[in-house]
Design a protein that fits this description.
It contains 10 helices and 7 strands. Helix 6 packs across helix 8, helix 7 crosses helix 10 and helix 9 runs antiparallel to helix 10.
Amino acid sequence: QEYAEKIVHYFNHSVIDYKAFWNLRKNMALHYGYWNKGTKTLGRALRNMNDKLACYSEIKEGEYVLDAGCGVGGSAIYLAKNYHCKILGISLVESQIKQAKINAIKNGVDTRTAFEVMDFTQIHIADGSFDVVWGLESICYAQNKADFIQEAYRVLKPGGRIVIGDGFFAKDNYSQNEKNLLDTWLHGWSLLSLDTAEQFKTSLENAGFQNIEIVDVTKYVLPTSRYLYALSIPGYIGDWTLRQFHLRDEVLKNNVIAARKQYEALKKDLWKYCIIRAKK
């Protein structure tokens, strides 16, 4: 419960940065972008990531999708508009759910989307309800990733698919300096830890999932990581100035620091970005 409250606190406070630097009102996204050849804007890269996960999960028209950790509804709305499926988005953060409902109405997909405050490790939905469980940079917030995976398996129909796009530790053991760098980054974004992709795969296997595929797409998200790093430089100066007038708090300070450290850690190959899919 304490960790859940910490997550809610982080997202309630950091929304100001996402609005300023990630164009949250328009993009409705809180994730990295996927930069194909010819991708020129962050907005396009963010939509590309939705398309990539949709492709890997083989979403079909009319299917029922659970967006586990839906943020302000960007992926759910994009899927409803472009893939004509029905979606339930869930998040711990009540303010995000309220905004997701508003965003769905603005985009004309409120009849195909629903949003509820819910913990994705304790999903209050009947067994075998969904065709797809979708987690885009949200499952990293699970204290125990296996708890989410077991719930995802339970709520999926036989033959249903799970698709995850997220950051993963690149190895099992780190030097103290590497740990310090990773901890600074994770703390700034209120993350406890990451799994390695192999650890996540083992949890999928233990839950009963089959046809597990791990795709390393780090090179396609690297431009987003670099962009965050670039933003962190003026961001740090602005943050320091505003904190002198008590207009920003420690959460926002750490958020800016994390934007810098995630890139430093990625360049040192301490973590990687993977898309993982599997079938029940």
